[in-house]
Amino acid sequence: MFGNYLIGLREGLEASLVVCILIAYLVKTGRRDALRPIWIGIGVAVALALAFGAGLTFGSQELTFEAQELLGGSLSIVAVVLVTWMVFWMRRTARHLKTELHGRLDAALQMGTGALVATAFLAVGREGLETALFVWASVRASSDGTHAPLIGVVLGLLTAVFLGWLFYRGALKINLAKFFTWTGGMLVVVAAGVLAYGVHDLQEADFLGGLANKAFDVSATIPPDSWYGTLLKGVFNFQPDPTVLQVTVWALYLVPTLALFLAPVGSGASKRVAKQKATETDEKAEATGVETAG
């Protein structure tokens, strides 16, 4: 349940912050007349995300067992790819998100109502579709016959909306860069579990082999129906009897992805690019006879 709560909180807070930035900017610039198209765009985006999630949930029930497993495994992998891209993107752009959205909104205000609706729809819709897909994959991976996973997601989303409202009212201030770094790191761990479960689905669909080749089996030590087994399942999508392929894919994803994600921003290639740009700037300044400061 905690893993699903984290997904709802992390993804919901991104969407909430986008909405807060858009609304606050229009209010502060005296453009309250543009609020209605913004809310229409947001409403359409939310409706599309809900419809997408409902389509995944109910549409897959009409398929055969093998087709369900193949669809579930494939979409789980797609969800992991999307959420991995998203956490890296947010970590890189969290500091500049406000400026970027303001620029888009200024351009939309000049173009008219349709552009405003489209701006809000695209800003929130992308988050909504990614969230719907990853939530569906995560709930499916951690499903234990109860509604706990879905309840966790809903509680996370409600918490995100409440925090977004506090941000808008100015009652809450936190370091968003650090927040998204820590929650993003935890989300990578959750994504690793979803990826492993997706591989298991593909093995059950006979798309991948090795279903009977178990890496280990600790079911006797950690019973799936025990409180600690349920806790491990809810937080890490832990499986007491994974296949060798599951463990291999889990490790090959988690270790390098987490290492790259937690590496200091500006290290490696980005430092070389910055140094190269600085060198080019100095050379241009010397060519034009202009001195650079510092």
What brief labels describe this structure?
294 residues; mainly alpha; 10 helices; 77% helix; 0% strand; elongated; disordered C terminus
How are the SSEs placed, and which strands pair?
Blueprint (H helix, E strand, L loop, with lengths): L1 H27 L6 H25 L5 H29 L3 H15 L1 H30 L5 H22 L6 H29 L22 H10 L7 H19 L6 H20 L6
Helix pairs in contact: 1-4, 1-5, 1-6, 1-7, 2-5, 3-5, 3-7, 4-5, 5-7, 7-9
Word description of this protein:
The chain is mainly alpha-helical and 294 residues long. It is built from ten helices and no strands. Helix 1 packs parallel to helix 6, helix 2 runs parallel beside helix 5 and helix 7 packs antiparallel against helix 9. It is elongated and about 65 Å long. The termini are far apart. 34% of the residues are buried.
Principal-axes shape call: elongated
The poorly predicted ranges are 267-274, 280-294
Task: Please compute the radius of gyration using only Cα atoms.
Answer: 22 Å
> What's the story with the biggest beta sheet?
none
Number of helices: 10
What share of residues are in beta strands? under 5%
Q: State the distance separating the first and last CA atoms.
A: 53 Å
Number of strands: 0
Q: What class do helices, strands and sheet pairing give?
A: mainly alpha
- What letter string, H or E per element, gives the SSE order? HHHHHHHHHH
Helical residue percent band: over 70%
Averaging pLDDT over every residue, what do you get? 77
